[in-house]
Structures are given as structure tokens and as C-alpha cells.
């Protein structure tokens, strides 16, 4: 059975505006100014703890405050309604078609598992996925290959396609030894040409042909 595993933020959904809102609420409580969206996006990709540490470094906040601020941002984000988080155009159609064809689908994200599941629920996407793994599900997070390999399970690596938007995703796929499809319109920091990938696409309506190309390798 073919398996397709997706990153979440910057791949299936554009969640940066809601992440920014949660970070800025915490900053307001600390008497600090807002961060703009491009800055927050530049901090996204390695999980919430790394994002919070980057925010702290930006404002020269002492490391001793990390646990408190990390917990606060997570609490704010978990309590949000995700009103500014949207699917990229064509995602639902693609997931529906793949699911109907019997393709095994999963999510492997560095977002903590609880808010990842909340986002999928809020966008009515949970029904499509057999497994969801977050950045805190196991003791390691991407780019360590452990979370992706756990999602893959007993499936042959040759039958797996991993889909992501970032340098972290590209490195995760490389370490896991699976085929990587790069969604070029997410939160990557590097030029497409500088990121290792087996195939790429810029619009989700192109993705089904990517899956077909993987099947005939």
C-alpha cells in the first residue's frame, strides 16, 4: 500500500498568522512590542520550543524565562479558535481523492501533537489521516528521522512519499531514506535549488501527478 506523509504548517495549512497572534499576546503580557508576520515565519520550522527561544533571543530575554514563556505561548495557542489558519487551495480535494483510492495518509509535524490535532479538527481534515505525530509525541523531533519512521511504521520505505515545505522536512526525508516532495510555497528559508528534493510542486492541483510519478518509479 502506498503511504503519503505530510508536514502540517506551511505544507497543508498556512498557520503562521495564528502562531503570530499567540506569540504577540504573550509579548503584550510581557510589555514587549508585536512581531510582524515575516519575522514570525522566519522563526517557524523546528517546533514551538525553538520558536519561543528565537523570540526570546530577538528580545534578549533571559534563558531562565524559557519554561514559563514556552508554556504560556502553548496555552494561548491551544485556547485559540485558529480563525486565521487556512488550508492551501486544493488540499481538501487532494486528500479526499487519495483517501478514496486507499492511500495511507499521515501527518508528521514539529507542532505539538495536541494543537496539531486541534487544527486538523477545526479544518475538518482529521478524517483523512490514519496517524498524526507531533513534535512532542516522541523524545525526538524532526529533522531526526524517528518521528517520520514511527509514522511510516512497517510500510516499505520504497512505498513512502514525504511531503513538506522546509529545510527541516528535506533533511528529515534524507535521514529517513524516503522520497521527498517539496511544496515550494510554504515557509522555507532557502532557494528551492539549494534544498534536496526528489520532486516539487507549487500548487496542490499538481500534486496528484507527483503521486502518480512516485508510483511508477
Automatic annotation (TrEMBL):
Keywords annotated in UniProt: Carbohydrate metabolism, Hydrolase, Magnesium, Metal-binding
Gene3D superfamilies on file: HAD superfamily/HAD-like, Putative phosphatase, domain 2
EC numbers, comma separated: 3.1.3.18
Listed Pfam families: HAD_2
Keyword presence, Amino-acid biosynthesis: no
Pathway membership, UniProt: Organic acid metabolism; glycolate biosynthesis; glycolate from 2-phosphoglycolate: step 1/1
Chloroplast listed as a keyword: no
Recorded catalytic activity of this chain's protein: 2-phosphoglycolate + H2O = glycolate + phosphate
Matching PANTHER family: PHOSPHOGLYCOLATE PHOSPHATASE
Family recorded in the similarity comment: Belongs to the HAD-like hydrolase superfamily. CbbY/CbbZ/Gph/YieH family.
Protein name as annotated: phosphoglycolate phosphatase
